[in-house]
Amino acid sequence: MKKLILKSISLLVVAIMAVPVQVHAQDWPNKSIRFISPFAPGGSNDIATRVIAEKLSQKLVQPIVVENKPGANTRIASDLIAKSDPDGYNFLMVAAPHTTNPALYGKLPYDTLQDFTHIVQVVRAPLFLIVPANSPYTNVKQFLDASVKQEIGFNVSSPGNGTAPHLALEVLNYIAKANLNHIPYKGDAPAVTDVLGGRVEAGIHPIVAPLPQIQSGRIRVLAVFGDHRSGLLPDVPSMGELGYPDTGVYTWFGLVGPAKLPADMVNRLNRDINDILAQPEVTARFVALGMETVGGTSPKFTDFVRADIDKWKDLVTKRNIRPD
Fold this sequence. Notes:
Elements: H1 2-27, E1 33-37, H2 44-60, E2 64-68, H3 75-82, E3 90-95, H4 97-105, E4 116-132, H5 140-149, E5 154-158, H6 164-176, E6 180-184, H7 188-196, E7 202-206, H8 211-215, E8 219-224, E9 250-258, H9 263-277, H10 280-288, E10 292-293, H11 298-319
Parallel strand pairs: 1-2, 1-3, 5-6, 5-7
Antiparallel strand pairs: 3-9, 4-7, 4-8, 4-9, 4-10
């Protein structure tokens, strides 16, 4: 009889302890939510984060506060979210370094797959190979062949070490056996300025920074990375169609939270953000930033992250790439 009473009490305690969690999930959200951008204010990640936050706030009927925590190639912000409680009030708009950092930096203070809930991939920005309009090279083959004939190779700009354009250059070197030297800058704008001035032979960048110069005829676009043309510049050939497959490298953003985020929260956020991405005005705002909306399920985003980590680990090892 005593054992039966003790067992009943134990079951009652377990049931009582479970109630707050269940009610919490049902009542979420009941206060303001924090979205972190791991980059400085005014950049494309910051803007994309605010676009989603503004629209999602209306759906959740709670304010979403955007905070900027740049530094260490997004590792500072990532570590903060990895160590946050999975209560549905702290999220991060990760970018391409989310999957390149494990290869570039080795051991991190968090596990990119185990310490995050990957909610939805939001947008991606295709990368373009650009040259000044007065360059003698009018197509990719001419450019790459000439780089091999130059003992010192060609200098090609990117917005920084360890960025997607940096790795796109390494992919092209590996696949095409080219001789391209990586010249990192602190952002796209100064790099594009040096492309214009002829201080580097070419650049690899998202379209938004060089677009005014492309439209004015001062910069020539040789190709978009990947197997398919971009709707942003549909007349520009893809690397794939030019005979350089498996060059699909993008700058991309996606929303993550801490690990063990309740499934109902994940499902709601995923559904709401997919609805937001389907809105024509949102699509137009991202196109103006040189981005394409992605969307999809949480498992699809997780699979993408896993595959991307493996891809970059393989390339970084083969090319002996260093982040600094």
